Every structure is written in structure tokens, then in C-alpha cells.
Amino acid sequence: MEQRTSADGLSPYRTFSRAEWAERREDTPMTLTREEVTRLRSLHDRLDMKEVEEIYLPLSRLLSFYVAATQRLFRAQQNFLGTEDAKMPYIIGVAGSVAAGKSTTARVLQALLARWPNVPKVDLVTTDGFLYPNAVLTQEGLMEKKGFPESYDLPALLRFLSDIKGGRRPARAPIYSHLVYDVMPNQWVEIDRPDLLIVEGLNVLETGAPPKDGKAIPYVSDFFDFSIYIDADEDVLLAWYVDRFLTLRGTAFRDPKSYFHRYATLSDQDAVATATSIWNRINLVNLHENILPTRQRADLILKKSESHLVEHVALRKL
Hints:
Layout (H helix, E strand, L loop, with lengths): L12 E5 H5 L11 H7 L8 H33 L8 E7 L5 H12 L8 E5 L7 H6 L14 H12 L5 E7 L4 E10 L4 E5 L25 E6 L2 H16 L18 H24 L8 E5 L5 E7 L2
Parallel strand pairs: 2-6, 2-7, 3-6, 7-8
Antiparallel strand pairs: 1-9, 4-5, 8-9
């Protein structure tokens, strides 16, 4: 087992090779079929049964331990205080760059964790629904910064997470359409007191400077019980983003309703140039300024190779 070294010679993480992490599965049974794994996979993600068995199954086992321990602590606190508070959902945050595979990771974990007896109800929301509508972003001059922290309705997201942790039922999250590239007006998904909630988004681990007056300012990550960062090298992320753009050019972009319909007729050369320009102008800047600096705040880092497969797992020490 490899130990990562920080500047002072100590690391808050224990880092496992792929083979070492796979051993942590032990006798955990595989609960997903090949057909289910295929349905959970995102565009251009090469998730297969082996990846689920070696990476995500051991992770679901670990998370089930964390959830069970938290549930025991909650019951002990109830007994100590003599209260009958409602059980608060366990919340997991999944962060990382555009094209890193956050959505696939979140969906696979949702499916696996729902098979564990202590977390039968597992819900998933993405922070895309909490982006400001395009009309607002255009008015504020933020369309070129869509996905940056300032493009989100942070108060609405914090209210949603507060409702979840407070046991209010149901809590509602707005729905985002990747086809029209906008929040859908008056459309919501209702989250009704799950045992576990997965929150996936670019900037969910982001924080700001603490206030000088000492007053509390909540951050999205304050509501997380566990957090995961999906990591890959910048050149790899760019290659995945371009590949995805080329695929969408011949599929979703062909729909006249698509926000990116104008790109459907681009030549290969022009499509690569356009995707690279968007990446360098928007996504790479967001990665450098807002996303990558939060990596070390995660409880677990999954480092992917060019093959889309996880090659190292770094778990924060308790």
C-alpha cells in the first residue's frame, strides 16, 4: 500500500493501487447485472463489470460501514438526549471536472448502495438543476461562466440541503435539461426522506474565504457526511471532452431542440477545434480556479487513467 507524501512528509490519505483496493471487496456479492451496468454508463465511459467489481463494489462496502456507524451514533445520541428526532439522511458529495465521469460514478454508487440492507432508499440529485436559468445568466453576463460557482443559485441549493438534513418532506430540486442546456421551468424532482442522498456536481466541495466577523456561512460541503473527487490529468480530460463532443455532434446535437444544434454539421476538424476552444476558454479555467483546488478536501479520490479506469484510490485517514 502506497503512502502519498505531502510537503511536511505526512499525508492525510492512504493510497491504494487498483489491485490493493479490489482486495477490499472480500466476499461482497455482486448485485448488479451486466445489463444494469450498461444502462448506468455515461456516454464514452468504459465502465464494465470488472470496474464495478474491483472499484465500486469495495467502495459501496466501505460506505455501508460508514452509514451504519453514523446510524448507530444517531441512536446513541437519541438515547443520551432523550429525544425522538427524525433520522437524518446520510449525504455523499461527488465532485470533479467536466468529462471526468461524475455522473457514472454517482449512478453506480446509487445502484450498489440501494442493495445494502441498511440503506434501502438512495436518491441522487445533480447541482445542474440549481444553475440560474440561461435568461438570468445572459442578463448577468455569465453564460461564458456557466458551471462556475457564481452561476449557481447557491441560496436555493443550501435551502434544499437544509431541508434534506432537517427531515422535511418532500424536498424539491429543480430539473435541468442537457438537451436544451437550461433549467426546466416549473419542473421538480421530489426527494422524500431517503436513507442516503448522493449530490453530484462540479463545485460541491468549493468554499469561500471565512467572514472576518466570525459569523457562520454554510457551504454545500458542510452538509456532506462523505465526499468523493473524480480525478484525471488535464490532457486526458480534454481528450475525453473532445471525444464526447464528436459523439454528440452525430447524436443529440442533431435534434433541432438542442442548444448545440448549430454544431451538428461541423466537419471533424472544425468540431475538434470548437470543442478544444470551449474547453480551454471555460472548462479548463473552471478546473484551475474552482474545482481542482478542492480535490484535497475530499474524503476519497478516484484517480483515472486514459482508459477511463480507476488506477489509484486515495482514502482520507480517520
